[in-house]
User: Fold these one by one.
Assistant:
Number 1:
Amino acid sequence: MSIDLPLVFAALMGAAVLAYVVLDGYDLGVGMLMPAATSGEQDVMVSSIGPFWDANETWLVLGVGLLLVAFPAAHGVVLTALYLPVTAMLIGLMLRGVAFEFRVKAEGWHRELWNWLFWAGSFLAAAAQGYMLGAYITGFETGFGYFLFSMLVAGGLCGGYVLLGGAWLILRTEGVLQKKAIGWTRWGLLWVALGVALVSIATPLASEPVRDTWFDFPRTAALMLLPLASALAWLWIWRSTGRLKRGDSVPEWAPFAGAVTVYVLAFAGLAYSLFPYVVMDRITIWEAAAPPSSLKVVLIGALVVLPFIIAYTVFSYHVFRGKASAKLYDH
Amino acid sequence: MESDPLLLARIQFGLNIAFHILFPSITIALAWILVYFRIRYARTGSETWLAAYRLWTKIFALSFAMGVVSGIVMSFQFGTNWPGFMENVGNIAGPLLAYEVLTAFFLEATFLGVMLFGMSRVPGWVHVSSTVLVAIGTSLSAFWILALNSWMQTPTGHGIVDGHLIALDWWQVVFNPSFPYRFTHMMIASGLTAAFVVAGLSAWRLLRAAGDPAAKVALRTGVLVAAVLAPLQIVVGDLHGLNTLEHQPAKVAAIEGLWETAHGAPLVLFAVPNVREKRNDFSIEIPKGASLILRHDADAEIRGLNAFEPDVPPVAPVFFAFRVMVGMGMLMVLLSWYGAWRMRKGVAPPRWLLWAFAGFTFSGWIATLAGWLVTEIGRQPWLVTGVLRTADAVGPVGAAQLGASLTGYILTYGLMLIAYMVVMTHLAGKGGASPEPQPAATERAIA
């Protein structure tokens, strides 16, 4: 039985990155929203993400770990090309991570500093990730136009995380904070719509391989389903948040589910555009792949362990279901 | 000054990994100490054990967060700065790192949330189990990373097929010759580091509030754990040294400051290695001591650095770091034994002894860092002994970008470390007696 191991690993790596973006996306989004909340509300917001941020970030380690294991040649090229944005992201993630602990344990102006660093770290990490995405899509081309494109994607991803964060808060909070969260989610939606529109126009302009993939009739007709579905998901979130704002009975999980749908669709579009390259237009997954013996060893381990990871992750969310309370993080 | 990218890359990696190791060296063993506190609370229902558990959970949470975020940086360092490592030995390093992420990182990260915040939301046995799973996760993490690091020191189980270095026998790769010694040595090192942190910060609290019951039980725990582990570490360290003599004799030569192969080599207690003239100045030595300790034969031959030219490690850092580590280890034995004896039968320790323990709070950091300097610098110029040189693994990132990232890391780590020390001191001084919501009622029903 011969399986296309590089293909399997490309799918696994993609899934890990998607999981990371959705999961850490909501907690980075909440972090970016901190300045818009009062002190008491901030404590509730942090409580809503406190038990999860560490495990959420681990999907990033898995994603980059799979790149390292399965596509070692590409791993070096990608991380060298993205050297400074990766460093910025790591510093942002570091500051954000420890700020959880420092902001409740420090006193006086130290506490204020760590509160600010919690926001700054979240923003830096999100923007750096967006920048990396832009650079990755365009095959690390240099030039002012490409720099602008990457900055555009950076802004778009920040908006995307705000959308996820706001929708998460709708699910996990109540009262005044929830009302604010509805407003934030709608702002995030608008921001995302603008960002996605601009990126969708700019991407085929910036990247010839993408242009070729997208405008390859008649496949393009089927491809149009993606933007169509995304628009529908966007509308669903817009409507459900509007109805929540008015106090109509709409399931509170609807905006978050909608946001996740948007991400899955965007991811599918991205994967389709990039395939089969792991470094755009330069290295395919098969060219970069490690020998089958390494891949097999890791695949067996992954297949055995992943069900457990998913099971205890679900367990963890079950333990902390319901509305977040400020008391939770006073540990 | 022309900055050498290789040197900058090495400094950056060294800084990253040195900063990172500070925190797992506490949390690996502290997780198990927390299991102990948690089980004592479950069995006795005593508020004292609960207070100790709650305080040390806070300290654990902070230390763990520092370890996690600096660990994420580590996972990227291979790609950003050492692509040659993955290109050459990726088929060994990759799977080992993947297994670390899959089996350890997710486990500890997920159950940490339940452990820190879920006490009032889950039955007692689930909470205790979560604490145990976090401890298992951190220990598993140590297992995999030490398997990889040990393979880099004493590589076995691999072969070259179609021009690629691949694993031929994973059992031999993981359980390579130095692994059992290095894994045990590091686990005990963590035990000692955590024990002295617990003892030291508890002593600090007792200096401010002499009757604090939680601090008293924590101090006893720390001192007793240290008293058991410190002598054990000396034995394990010795066995580790014998193993290193067999597999990495150049490292031993640097440790001993032995420039020339000799029969009946002296044990150099202190000296200033003179690299240019290849000898030791101001040497205080015990004749035939090295041969006696290493080969159990006063006239046995020990190969000197001259036997390994030109592949010799930098002598001075290895030589001095080793003596710092051993010196610290001996002081740990003295202090912990005296403390255990003085505090026997529950007698309260005198203030000067509390000050001594407080002073030794971070002694484990000094010993552990010194030990890592010995083992990693002692392996140079090899990144993987006999297989890959450090200089051949560095990436193409230029000095300017390296300078930028290095500066960024230094500033960030500096900020984080200062904040950590301030908050730790503050938490320790406050002690664990703050009013907290009670855990679930089913708590008390566990045996």
Note: The longest strand of chain A covers residues 277-279.
Number 2:
Amino acid sequence: MKIAVCAKQVPDTEVKVQVKNGAIDDEEFTYIVNPYDEYAVEEALRIKESGGDAEIVVFTIGGDRAKEAVRSCLAMGADRAVLLNDPLFLETDGRGRGMILAKAIEKEGFDLILCGKQAIDVDEAQTGIRIAEILGLPHVSSVNKIEWGEDGTFRANRDIEGGTEVVEAKLPAVLTATKGLNEPRYASLRGIMMSKKKPIAEMDAEALGLTADDLKPYVSVVGVELPPERKAGKTVSGDVEETVPQLIDFLKNEAKIL
Amino acid sequence: MSKNILVFAEVRNGEIKKAALEAIGAASNIVDEVGGQVSAVMVGSDLSNLADLLANSGAGKVFLADNPVLSAYSPDAYAKVIADTVADNDMNLVMVPFTAMGKDLGPRIAAKLDVGMVSDCTGIRVTDGEVNFQHPIYAGKAISWFRQNGDGCLILGTRPNVFSVMEETGKTAEIVNLDIDIAEESVLAKVVDLIKPEHEELDVTEASVVVSGGRGMKGPENFAMLEELAEIFNGAVGASRAAVDAGWIPQSHQVGQTGKVVIPDLYLACGISGAIQHQAGMRSSKYIVAINKDPDAPIFKLADFGIVGDLFEVIPKFKEELEKLSE
């Protein structure tokens, strides 16, 4: 079985986000594998471990800095990786990213494509689903449980408002992972050592047959700002006989909720 | 440039999602500024009695894709119907309420039409005839504004609870019954079952009041206290990652960077310290109230009103006072 996993390198969730000259100031950023993509890598590993014969290939759009994230995925246990490295790739939009990954994945042919449900920097939640449509495959997004049936048929669960939807489809397919699907493993020391020998192939726009015109962004950012500052209001302490009435008062007269 | 807008009116349990009516309201505002028209499309089966509500909320035309093959949701089948409607009617903006279904469907429509998409839109403005779309990034730590390049169609995912439903317009809409030509076998992915929790629960993303518990709740049994409080407000119970990871409450209640983003009128944080990742999920709430034993908890910097105290004393007293008020 061949499994493709799409992984993105993103800024750590702890970074302080600041805006400089109308753009995000990333000078002090540290980077991680997108947390939702880790659930995808982990699921691929579990499928491999339970089934026997599977090859896991990680696809990442990024430059040299992204190699660190790719190595992390290889250290977890993926077999090899493809780094999609081209300045054009970094200037495109969600449509472009879906196209780049779909073209790269299509070159080989996979039974299963696993992605995280969204990248925690741009928060678009489009890539995995776009790949599915481009390749003419079924998709289930935001999956937190998978049950495998016969002949590549599966049922995947996803949370909806007030319940859980169970979706049925058949491989080949794209699944995007959310929290709760599994608990991603920490790479072992052995895994880290072995990852250094695993191949990372690089492909640019030309290798994928994509031109600058193909990749021109259909949407562009016109500005970035910080959210309105929330100022701390009143904080009280002491006996509940004193504090709770003040809360009621706040809810009645200021928030006008009571 | 005028906008020929198509709004996807999601139907769940025989009802149109409020988020869809909100999207129609937002669409109407755009058309007021730049010209154009607002239509809606419903996909499923047994839909005809719902069209009036869409007209009343601002849709001038309602497309009905009413067919048994569409009675269960399928992203690829629904996307095909909507993409065909867009192409046949020269629509240049498709608004999809960013609910669970919308998040699953929107990108598929975008890819089918091979067009751009702005997800999770929290604001729309028109400057010099150009429409810009607001989209939070870095889990809401920053806000970006997008524009569309070129004149093609744009897919816009609108966040629920942000835009307003229009006052009843009393208008009627032209109803167009679409011819559906989809073979059952061609549907790729399809919903086959719906699992509901034992007790009907209001989703945190749909509640106007969220009562949320964190590590300070000390155990799963104490969430009952928050459920009772939420019930008084007709609200929902939320939780921090700590409480969910401890197994005290299911993941679906988690508010935060790796949980849900909520914008209720009131967010009551009980025993939640307020780490950056949690703040990402609730900082846009209209009013924030915090109860925590630790005066240095970061949540107090965000709260409009805070009580430094033992939540096991504060909450029962709060409930008591609320019950007195309703008498």
Note: Chain A touches chain B through 84 residues (CB under 8 Å).
